[in-house]
């Protein structure tokens, strides 16, 4: 296997989570990979796809397939975007479409980052003993099917105790445009999620998706609850570097 990979940083990663993306690069280098970052990468197309703009979403899919054109794995630090690129792109193109094979070949090269790191990254935990809980986003669970790899990475940290979150598989209420279209329902869902987080008595919740992170972190802060939200790949990097969480 050639030791080169593409990193797809996602919209939230590029705009709001630069440190997380840098930690992602560090983790991949620790695993022995050369990271190729395309500066002209753009959205995966999920917002338009979920809103029914299928022709516009097809253009985005083709743009990404052409941009990440070499036969390297495309690694995505988000189950939501990974699920879109791995699965939903194929729903946009009929098998008789002239571009179907191109999209299929591209989608077959896309991985949620956790799956890749679980296979290739040697983890040394240099942090102090700590208890954490985990929230897996809906697309990671049901579309990208990457949650098991993410939790496996956490369990490899010898000084970390992973406490199961009650009703772990329930949505946090973000859902992309859902939180905008149905704010009352979304708020009720995130408050229910927070209730379950508090039941674990953990001071840290690990999340592998930027949208869920913003939603849960915002609700915790609005309600003045002292629980820290941290991205999975920030958490892994800090534990391996021996940094304070």
UniProtKB/TrEMBL annotation:
Annotated organism of origin: Campylobacter ureolyticus
Start and end residues of each Cysteine-rich domain: 7-85, 132-217
InterPro entries (alphabetical): Cys_rich_dom
Pfam families: CCG
Gene name tied to this protein: lldE
Name of this chain's protein: NAD-independent L-lactate dehydrogenase LldEFG, oxidoreductase subunit
PANTHER family to which the protein is assigned, alphabetical: LACTATE UTILIZATION PROTEIN A (PTHR30296:SF0), UNCHARACTERIZED PROTEIN YKGE (PTHR30296)
Superkingdom per UniProt: Bacteria
GO MF terms, alphabetically ordered: oxidoreductase activity
GO cellular component, one term: cytosol
């Amino acid at each position: 296997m050639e030791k080169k990979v593409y990193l797809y940083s996602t919209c939230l990663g590029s705009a709001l989570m630069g440190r997380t993306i840098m930690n992602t690069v560090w983790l991949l280098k620790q695993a022995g990979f050369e990271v190729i970052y395309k500066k002209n990468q753009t959205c995966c197309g999920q917002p338009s796809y979920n809103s029914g703009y299928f022709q516009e979403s097809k253009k985005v899919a083709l743009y990404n397939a052409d941009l990440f054109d070499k036969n390297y794995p495309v690694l995505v630090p988000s189950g939501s975007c990974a699920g879109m690129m791995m699965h939903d792109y194929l729903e946009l193109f009929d098998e008789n479409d002239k571009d179907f094979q191109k999209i299929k070949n591209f989608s077959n090269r896309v991985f949620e980052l956790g799956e890749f790191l679980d296979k290739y990254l040697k983890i040394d935990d240099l942090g102090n003993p700590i208890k954490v809980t985990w929230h897996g986003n809906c697309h990671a669970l049901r579309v990208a099917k990457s949650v098991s790899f993410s939790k496996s990475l956490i369990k490899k940290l010898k000084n970390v105790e992973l406490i199961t979150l009650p009703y772990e598989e329930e949505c946090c209420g973000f859902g992309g445009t859902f939180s905008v279209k149905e704010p009352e329902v979304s708020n009720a869902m995130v408050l229910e999620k927070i209730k379950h987080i508090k039941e674990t008595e953990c001071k840290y919740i690990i999340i592998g998706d930027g949208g869920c992170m913003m939603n849960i972190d915002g609700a915790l802060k609005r309600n003045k609850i002292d629980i820290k939200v941290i991205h999975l790949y920030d958490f892994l990097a800090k534990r391996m570097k021996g940094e304070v969480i």
